[in-house]
Amino acid sequence: MDAKALWQRYQDWLYFHEGLGLYLDVSRMRFDDAFVETLQPKFDKAFADMAELEKGAIANPDENRMVGHYWLRNPDLAPTPELTQEIVQTLEQIEAFAEKVQTGAIHPPRANRFTDIISIGIGGSALGPEFVAEALAPDFPPLKIHFIDNTDPAGIDRILNHLRNNLASTLVVVISKSGGTPEPRNGMIEVKKAYAGQNLDFAQYAVAITSTGSNLDKVAQSEGWLARFPMYDWVGGRTSEMSAVGLVPAALQGIDVRAMLEGAKEMDDATRIANIKNNPAALLALSWYYAGKGKGEKDMVVLPYKDSLLLFSRYLQQLVMESLGKEQDLDGNTVYQGIAVYGNKGSTDQHAYVQQLREGVPNFFATLIEVLEDRQGPSPEIDPGVTSGDYLSGFLQGTRKALYENQRDSITVTIPQVNARTVGALIALYERTVGFYASLVNINAYHQPGVEAGKKAAAAILDLQTKVIGVLQAEKTPLSLEEIANKAGAAEEVESIYKILRHLSANQRGVILQGNLGQPSSLKVSLS
User: Fold this and answer.
1) Distances in Å between the alpha carbon of 431 and those of 24, 317, 321?
2) End-to-end alpha-carbon separation of the chain, Å?
3) Which residues are tagged catalytic?
4) Where are the alpha helices (DSSP H) in 22-172?
5) pTM for the full model?
6) Across the beta sheet with 410-415, what order do the strands follow?
7) Which of helix, strand or coil describes residue 465?
8) For strand 524-527 and strand 479-480, is the pairing parallel, antiparallel, or unpaired?
């Protein structure tokens, strides 16, 4: 396509949202009008499906749940007055609590102010808050946030050691829908012990974000924690940033949560328009479908050209891959759907993998995120008439052009600046796109059976560990791995038993391995 035709295609397919100042350019996706026509019936169904979902249809049949994250930024849409009131009241409670913490009306026993936050969560209870903190927290926030988002002991130690001298002025936010998810539960227990080690009453530093009546809710209530905020069963973890999960940490950091909600609401309004060309989420879903032929045949590479959006690709990994990565469609057919997402930021990653993107395996499409504002205030010139921001813009445009010239497709999303409204809008844009795309390929975007299977498998390993230790405690002589497996009633689990024992031995947990470590079958195992 020559330059004139390409310029015309750009204008024909450019989407602009005046209120948000957001542009979406899909002109470098090489679909044609005939392709769009073939998808029209699928989009008609997707628009209808989304309307039903927002009215309160059971969109997660596995758990018999509604899917209502859209109501969080427009409570009037909730299907009952009680839900509307609960959403409104929770937001007011979050803002009131954050203000009291920031002014010192709520403060720790040994200090006039809280200075730091430890946020304990996993998956959607961590990725959204981390992304928003990186994108929007002021340089000098009223409270500085630190995340425990794994059950890695060294990672937990790093946070606690970093805060060792500030623990007495550190607020702890524990985020878990049930209170039983291992990662946040483990983090909470370790943090509790750290507070006890400094003779600090953990309850006077703790906030719970959890389902009403959960185990965590009961503990927080009985111990008299500072505050409790609700998690709703109609909000999935990967779409929970606009709930208390994301709003409590954001508000405590001084982020304008009302503006974030407003930006999401504006984007929701824009993505309800039942017309592909006038709906940015429909345009994205169309592009995803085209790129992967509706089968996820190409990966999505996300390159935001702004340091503060560093974690956007990581946030999108969960939103897209957990929502779309499904073995079966809604009719029970085996389809193996999904879109792999990876990325980091531009222009750093131009020096890392754009070489392959341009000339290597053509198994991807790119999403470039452009921010028009370089910085607040004027920029010095690096070269005559040229600033650092001009270079960044040039790298983005150059990458887009170089990819297209080599038959590599790309999408460009442009926002005027990184602020609470635009970040809220970006989150809402991709949430809706995932919903549309799921409808196009006939899968359920709102359940995650694979995640549950992984949790069950991990629990089985821990149960096996208990049995193995019991066998070793009962024996007086060293045993081979096979003998341990047979006595534990797990003859098929020799490999797992070997890995359990190797881990325990490496951590001085009383397990002695004798023999050639490179030949597991030669090992004899006993307890010290």
Assistant:
1) 16, 12, 12
2) 74
3) 322, 351, 455
4) 33-55, 81-103, 124-136, 153-162
5) 0.94
6) 15-17, 22-25, 410-415, 364-371, 299-304, 341-343
7) helix
8) antiparallel
